Amino acid sequence: MIPGSRTQPVVTNQSMVLFNSAAGVDGIVYSNTVNTPVVGPMLSLLKSTDKLHASLGDTLVYTIKASNNGNADALLTVYDILPEGVSFISNSVLRDGVPLPGATPSSGILLGSIAPQNQVSIAFQVVIISLPSSLVLQNKALGRFSFATP
Prior knowledge:
The chain is an all-beta fold. It folds into two domains: about 1-35, no CATH class; about 45-145, Sandwich (Immunoglobulin-like), CATH 2.60.40. The protein has no helices and 14 strands. The chain has strands at about 1-5, 10-15, 15-20, 25-30, 35, 45-50, 60-70, 75-80, 85-90, 95, 100, 110-115, 120-130, 140-145. Strands 6, 7, 9, 10, 11 and 13 form a six-stranded antiparallel beta sheet that branches. Strand 10 and strand 11 (about 100) form a beta hairpin. The chain is elongated, with a radius of gyration of 24 Å.
């Protein structure tokens, strides 16, 4: 893949034929070059929390930034199955600061369409209700998306 620019990668292809003629002449023939643009979103999720250290009863704010570095819009839903020991705080989900009443991370949070070279941020709160035996809360989010080619 040869990037024509950051927003428009291109796959370049050319064929080659090696041949031997009856007259004993060997040769190579090349086809024309074909450039095919690669169209699609390139999504990434970056998850963080507001605290590096927490105790029983503390509230944590998880933030997930979804970025589209591709060249097509993507319809994205983020899922986050929370670890044991935390409880989701109802109606705490914000999309770019706007409340999303009734949204829950485990059921999926619809972020809508993310345009190329843009990002969307969601945040939600959990409370620590029990301590894991490892004393470490590990958690990651999953994004599922769809897009249409031109």
